[in-house]
Amino acid sequence: MRSHRSHRGLGDAAIAAVTVLALCSGAWLLGSRTEKPAPPQPSAAQGESNGSHADPQPTEPHTPGLRSADPHAPGLRSPAPHPTALRSPAPALPPSPPDRIRIPSIRVDAPLMGLGLTRTGSLDVPPAERKNLAGWYEAGTTPGETGTAIVAGHVDNTEGPAVFYHLGALKKGSTIEVERRDGGTALFSVHAVEVYDAKAFPDEKVYGPAPRPELRVITCGGGYSRTTGYQGNVVVFAHLTGSR
């Protein structure tokens, strides 16, 4: 893994608009001859009041609530908002690369690998065959320090749901835990979950600098077509509320 400071001068905003298109082929749905449940998508109620949402698009597979073919996935009930929704932002932590991400309400518990940029300026992605693996943009902000830290992962692969399949079901106030290499854990509170069409992805809003420690967790989402795959991205916006 490269040092997270090796290309820090690029900055988070250097990531191009096509950042996570490589996450979005919809390999599981595309390769299926039978109807499969598409991943859940966030409702307008989970977005920021001034956010710009992509209009929900119908998907080819039927989505029965939040049910998934994955036996380890959450059931139909949506998690209740976590009390961290009322907590104030916490002071920034010193820089330290992350090793693991946990999102208890959607049962995510996955290691993190470092990601760089491709020659086209898009964010590289974790190996598709490792479905319980996410990545973080190691040339940018580390989770917990001041600025915008970026985490991305696949929604599915050819075998079925992957690490962030249920990201669109996340609710405001949910907690995201990031284990850091310094031995601490950064605790983030979700303040918005939004879905954007790939052609109208708000680069500055998602990747731009922040005056406090913030986190973005990204996967593919929006409408699905067998021709183009997923047509957008689900983005979780969270801010640091504590550490342990």
Describe the structure.
The protein has a single domain (10-61, 89-243), classed as Sortase (Sortase, Chain: A). Helix content is 4%, strand content 31%. It is built from 2 helices and 10 strands. The protein has helices at 27-30, 203-207, and strands at 98-103, 108-115, 134-137, 147-153, 156-157, 160-161, 175-180, 185-197, 213-225, 229-243. The strands form 2 sheets. The chain has an 8-stranded mixed barrel. The chain has a two-stranded antiparallel sheet with strand order 5-6. Strand 1 (98-103) and strand 2 (108-115) form a beta hairpin. It is globular. The two termini are 25 Å apart.
Descriptive terms for the model:
244 residues, mainly beta, Sortase, Chain: A, eight-stranded mixed beta barrel, disordered N terminus
Q: Would you list the SSEs in sequence order as H and E?
A: HEEEEEEEEHEE
* CATH topology description: Sortase, Chain: A
Which residues form runs of ≥5 with pLDDT under 50?
A: 1-11, 50-85
Q: Tally the structural domains.
A: 1
Strand content bin: 25-35%
Oligomer: single chain
What's the short story on this structure?
The chain has 244 residues and is mainly beta.
List the helices and strands and how they pair.
Elements: H1 27-30, E1 98-103, E2 108-115, E3 134-137, E4 147-153, E5 156-157, E6 160-161, E7 175-180, E8 185-197, H2 203-207, E9 213-225, E10 229-243
Parallel strand pairs: 2-3, 4-9
Antiparallel strand pairs: 1-2, 1-7, 3-4, 5-6, 7-8, 8-10, 9-10
